[in-house]
Design a protein that fits this description.
mainly beta, Neuraminidase, 366 residues
Length: 366
């Protein structure tokens, strides 16, 4: 089995490249959009644009980058691309900006908060131009996490975009920086029944149990063959958690541990192979059977493993190590089945020369 690898390393003036998504264009090319940082900092709130590269050979080689969405606020990141059933391409991303909290008891020099929310844009010309991005939630100041490559369309035509809401912390006197909270979170599901033009919350959300201190973070969803929807969540409990919906994402079962996906504070990705109909999962698997002991620079996000399920996520087999460096971390995966192969993108930094999120890798698996 031959894999073709393209690395997009950070450099001076470009301290981070991360969190992308791919779609196949009508002429067969692959469009890959990711976040390219362009200041001195690689933090989640640092200045960045969304840029695009294309491949004409199924993901083996890639073009130079061009800006698609220029940062108009604090930061733009976490891209989801999806070919809709009406033929349009949808682009969802997070935008961060500094907001006034609007409190009556506002303290002197209160720097405000970092607001983070999803926006959506569309292309009718195969990614050459995009419509004006629209706020998907219209919420007051809030911090929403929506991972890259998470937007899905059900067989019914319904769109689902899973989000985790992180609660804002009180202002800390003496602070000089905008702040947000990454504390315990719960998962909501944004739903559209008109090809992404308007959005609403699901009728029910997934609340974490009180003893799950991380909450339910970085959710993802996949449609099962019977029409139900499975959701999964990053946690700090040692594994992913999961929940199920039988009404198109409006109501959900109680979240429960998913010990088949051992991981620690790292996201999981699952998609269906359109040719074999199997489900394919990629995640940082901490199962000791792999014999990899994560080192400090990895953030416990190694090794990177791919597995398959032929029984609708009941069992997972044919585990394969994709990455196994103990001092590197691998996370924020995107997956595209195209040109008789699987193309992945994921963060791959670590070791002495970078942090986990600074470098990006694209891997084509034949």
């Amino acid at each position: 089995m031959t894999d073709f690898i393209t690395n997009i390393f950070h450099s001076e003036g470009n301290p981070r490249n991360s969190e992308g998504s791919m779609v196949q264009l009508q002429d067969g090319r692959i469009l890959f959009i990711y976040t390219r940082y362009n200041s001195t900092s690689w933090s989640d709130e640092a200045h960045a644009d969304l840029v695009a590269i294309t491949s004409s050979d199924g993901g083996k080689t890639w073009s130079d980058w061009r800006v698609v969405i220029k940062n108009r606020a604090q930061n733009v990141m976490s891209v989801s691309l999806l070919r809709l059933q009406n033929g349009r391409i949808a682009l969802v991303f997070l935008e961060k900006s500094i907001k006034d909290r609007g409190l009556l008891d506002k303290q002197p020099n209160d720097p405000g908060i970092i607001d983070c929310r999803p926006y959506i844009s569309f292309s009718d010309d195969e990614g050459l131009t995009w419509t004006k991005p629209e706020d998907m939630t219209k919420y007051p100041p809030i911090y929403i996490v929506g991972n890259n490559d998470r937007l899905i369309q059900l067989s019914t035509g319904r769109l689902i975009y899973p989000i985790a809401i992180h609660h804002l912390t009180p202002f800390k006197p003496g602070s000089t920086s905008p702040y947000s909270s990454h504390q315990r979170s719960e998962t909501y599901f944004l739903i559209s029944d008109d090809q992404g033009l308007t959005w609403r919350e699901s009728k029910q959300c997934c609340y974490p149990p009180q003893d799950l201190t991380s909450g339910l973070r970085e959710p993802g969803v996949v449609e099962l063959s019977d029409g139900s929807v499975m959701a999964w969540f990053r946690t700090n409990s040692g594994s992913q958690w999961k929940a199920f919906s039988h009404d198109g994402g409006d109501s959900w079962s109680a979240a429960q541990p998913a010990p088949e996906f051992l991981s620690m504070e790292s996201p999981l990705s699952i998609k269906r192979n359109p040719w074999t109909k199997e489900l394919v999962a990629v995640w940082s698997d901490l199962n000791p059977k792999h014999g990899i002991v994560p080192q400090e620079g990895s953030w416990n996000r190694t090794p990177l493993v791919i597995a398959r399920s032929s029984d609708e996520a009941k069992t997972w087999t044919r585990h394969r190590l994709l990455e196994k460096e103990p001092d590197h971390g691998y996370c924020y995966i995107s997956m595209l089945f195209a040109s008789n192969g699987l193309i992945l993108s994921y963060c791959c930094g670590g070791g002495k020369d970078s942090a986990v999120l600074q470098d990006l890798r694209v891997r084509r698996i034949e």
